[in-house]
Specification:
With 313 residues, the chain is α/β, with parallel strands linked by helices. It has three domains: 4-84, Winged helix-like DNA-binding domain superfamily/Winged helix DNA-binding domain (Arc Repressor Mutant, subunit A, Orthogonal Bundle), CATH 1.10.10; 90-157 and 276-299, D-Maltodextrin-Binding Protein, domain 2 (3-Layer(aba) Sandwich); 163-268, D-Maltodextrin-Binding Protein, domain 2, CATH 3.40.190. 41% of the residues lie in helices and 21% in strands. The chain has helices at 4-16, 19-26, 30-44, 60-86, 103-117, 130-139, 200-208, 214-220, 228-238, 283-295; strands at 49-50, 57-58, 92-98, 121-127, 144-149, 156-170, 181-182, 192-193, 241-245, 260-263, 267-277, 307-309. The strands form two sheets. Strands 3, 4, 5, 6, 7, 8, 9, 10, 11 and 12 form a ten-stranded mixed beta sheet that branches. Strands 1-2 form a two-stranded antiparallel sheet. It is elongated and about 75 Å long.
C-alpha cells in the first residue's frame, strides 16, 4: 500500500513537471523520488506520468489519481487542525500569496502583529500576479492568497477583508492639480501612467478611463513596470498622472500629499479579499490571518460604504 509520502511525491512532480525540482521540493534525492513514484505506479498497475515529454506531464488516469491524492492529504491536514483546535493551540505553516499592488502597503502593517500574537505560526510569503496566485492555490502550493476581487475562477473561494478608494497622483504641471476633485469623465489614458500587463490594478485603471487612443496607448505602455512607486516617480519626472490605491497615500511624503486628488462623485473602490482553494485544510490559520489584518486597518476600510467596486476582469 502506498504512503502519504508517495502521495506528496506525485503531487510535487505534477506541480513542477521536473524530477530534479520535485525532489528538491521534497528534500530527497532524485533517485529516491523516482523510485517511489515508480513503485506506486507498479502497485496501482497504471502509468501516472508521461516521462517522454518535457516537462513531465500526468496521464489521464494520473490526473485523476493526483486529484484524489490532493484530497487525501487535505483531509490528513484537517485531522491535525482538529487536534490543535481541541488543544486550543494555534500553530502551523502557512504559505501566503499576495499581489504586488497590495504587498508593499499591507504586509508591513500586520506581519509583526501576527508574529507577536501567534509565534508558533510559520508564514511564508510569495509575491505573484493574480493568475499565478490562482494557479498556485489550485495546485495547493499556496494555502491562501490576498488579491483584488471579484474574480471569475472556478474552485476558488473568496471573502472580502477590506475596501480602499482609488485616487489620483497628479503632477503639479497638470490641470488636475488645481482641481479639488477630478471628474471620472476627464480621465484620459493618453496622460496616465499604468502598470504593465498582468496587473489587476492596470485593468482597473483602464476600466476607469473614459478617453483612450490606440496611438497613445502604444506609446505610453511601452514603459513597463510592476511598481506603483515607480509610476509615482514617473509622474514627478515626466508629468501626467497615475491612479493609486488608498493605502499608497501613507507612503507619500507630506509635502507631496497635495498631489493626491480624489475622484468626483461616488467612491471608486477596489475590493481586497482572502482567497482559498475549495478544499483547503488550514481554516483556523486563515481565520487568524484575516482577523489580524482587519485589526490593523481603519474601521472605515472594513466594510463597503457607498461607492462602486471597480472590476478588473
Amino acid at each position: 500500500m502506498f504512503s502519504f509520502v508517495q502521495l506528496e511525491y506525485i503531487i510535487a512532480l505534477d506541480t513542477y513537471g521536473n524530477f530534479k525540482k520535485a525532489s528538491e521540493h521534497c528534500y530527497v534525492t532524485q533517485p529516491t523520488l523516482s523510485m517511489q513514484i515508480k513503485k506506486m505506479e507498479e502497485e496501482l498497475g497504471v502509468i501516472l506520468f508521461d516521462r517522454s515529454k518535457k516537462p513531465v506531464v500526468s496521464t489521464e488516469i494520473g490526473r485523476a489519481v493526483i486529484a484524489q491524492a490532493r484530497t487525501i492529504l487535505t483531509e490528513r491536514d484537517k485531522l491535525g487542525e482538529l487536534v490543535d483546535v481541541h488543544q486550543n493551540e494555534i500553530q502551523g505553516e502557512l504559505h501566503l500569496g499576495i499581489i504586488p499592488s497590495i504587498s508593499p502597503y499591507l504586509l508591513p502593517l500586520f506581519i509583526m502583529e501576527l508574529h507577536q500574537k501567534y509565534p508558533r505560526i510559520s508564514i511564508h510569503i510569495h509575491e505573484m500576479l493574480t493568475e499565478e496566485l490562482i494557479t498556485a492555490l489550485r495546485k495547493e502550493t499556496l494555502d491562501v492568497g490576498i488579491l483584488v476581487t471579484p474574480i471569475d475562477a472556478k474552485q476558488i473561494m473568496t471573502h472580502p477583508i477590506y475596501y480602499e478608494d482609488i485616487a489620483l497622483y497628479v503632477s503639479p504641471d497638470h490641470p488636475f492639480f488645481n482641481e479639488v476633485k477630478v471628474s471620472i469623465q476627464a480621465l484620459d489614458g493618453d496622460e496616465m501612467w499604468m502598470l504593465r500587463e498582468g496587473h489587476c490594478f492596470r485593468n482597473q485603471s483602464l476600466n476607469l478611463c473614459q478617453n483612450q487612443s490606440r496611438r497613445s496607448d502604444e506609446r505610453r505602455f511601452s514603459f513597463e513596470t510592476s511598481s506603483i512607486e515607480t509610476l509615482i516617480k514617473m509622474v514627478d519626472l515626466q508629468g501626467g498622472y497615475t491612479l493609486i490605491p488608498e493605502m499608497v497615500i501613507g507612503n507619500i511624503s507630506p509635502e507631496k500629499r497635495g498631489q493626491v486628488k480624489w475622484i468626483e462623485g461616488p467612491s471608486q473602490m477596489r475590493e481586497v479579499s482572502i482567497a482559498t482553494f475549495r478544499n483547503f485544510a488550514k481554516q483556523r490559520l486563515v481565520k487568524v490571518l484575516e482577523e489580524t489584518i482587519r485589526s490593523v486597518l481603519p474601521e472605515s476600510m472594513l466594510d463597503r460604504k457607498e461607492g462602486q467596486v471597480v472590476e478588473w476582469q
